Amino acid sequence: MDPVRNPFAPGAGQRPPELAGRDRELDAFEIVLERVARGRPERSLVLTGLRGVGKTVLLGELRSMAVRAGWGAGKIEARPDADLRRPLSAALHRAIRDLAVRHPDGERVAEVLGVLKAFALRSAPADAKLRDRWQPGIDVPVRTGKADSGDIEIDLVELFTEVATLAADLETGVAILIDEMQDLRPDDVSALCAACHELSQSRSPLVVVGAGLPHLPAVLSASKSYSERLFRYARIGQLDRADADFALLAPAEREDATFDVDALDTLYERSGGYPYFVQAYGKAAWDAAPRTPISAADVKMAAPEAEAELAVGFFGSRFERATPAEREYLRAMAELTDGRDEPVGTSGIAEHLERRASSLSPARDSLLKKGLVFSAQRGQIAFTVPHFGRYLLAQA
Ligand SMILES: Nc1ncnc2c1ncn2[C@@H]1O[C@H](COP(=O)(O)OP(=O)(O)O)[C@@H](O)[C@H]1O
Ligand SMILES: [Mg+2]
What we know:
Number of helices: 16
Shape: globular
Oligomer: single chain
Order of helices and strands: HEHEHHHEHEHHEHHHHHEHHEEH
CATH architecture of the largest domain: 3-Layer(aba) Sandwich
Largest sheet: 5 strands, parallel
CATH superfamily of the largest domain: P-loop containing nucleotide triphosphate hydrolases
Helix content: 40-55%
Bound molecules: adenosine-5'-diphosphate, magnesium ion
Number of strands: 8
CATH topology of the largest domain: Rossmann fold
CATH class of the largest domain: Alpha Beta
Strand order of the largest sheet: 2-3-4-1-5
């Protein structure tokens, strides 16, 4: 069928034509927005799940909800080893601009922007040469004395408090959305938790909404034991059959096309309900089908195309980031799980490779750091990418 009208959207962060099966999370966030804006105590949301389940797009949707509710909102993507100040400054700048258009007191807005600027300028060492200094692009005079101590924990509390008062003036709130939250540096994680704790105690209308890999709750509670009281963890994963069908049917029907029941059976078998795969197979099936309704035969014909796309865009791009030693480790994981998405014991991997466990630690640590594997439990390791083991076995 006409590829131009193909509605499906496989790809990291690509907004799906239909955000299926996420009503629970959307409803929960609606309540967070209402309660926090009214100064009621409420835990914020942290989304966790494997790669490709739709965390980024859901986080984007939560952001849109906040903006529609009149909140100021800004989003960042954490990166390993990167400083939090710069991206956070940019996100808060965005959020303040959202609020500034409605705020009656321009002076006050400029004050808060000035504090934000002081916070941002702290990201360069004070003695950095002028050309190495980062220009945050905030067009007001800097206001020193708040949020610029250099101690990130103190600075975040002061900065968040300032920004939250702007929102409180408007009886609204501020949402900071952090994607790939597991990649924040430990001191930044702990400062963020501390600041959220402080602000929730003073009922300031500012929330941090996170998204990350399944071990993110463990990262947060290792940092601050009270993090469980700050966040509600929402694990997102595969769509059930009805939601996966809806994710395919609703967009197709808007283009006057549909799928046979047999086609939907085959699609669910292939995708396992993983949103990324739903989009990839849906897209290929659309292109392969000569006419509507799309049949099971069309899906089968399209499967190699979808798999080739996934091999490059979803699996291959990750596998390529692994060194030979890391690849050996990943293959051992795949062999031991026989391609199922299950955790394996690290000692079992050493045995399988006939190596001492300590000699494998560097490979394991760097795979953890690259976000290809995660450890939900001590001594256990699993792929962050669904069907990765199956992909590796098919390669061999
Ligand atoms: N609820 C959903 N329904 C249908 N497709 C979805 C849904 N959530 C995500 N997708 C699709 O899945 C893919 C991966 O989404 P993304 O947000 O990048 O996942 P993650 O951030 O968890 O790796 C994208 O192609 C997106 O369009
Ligand atoms: Mg993502």
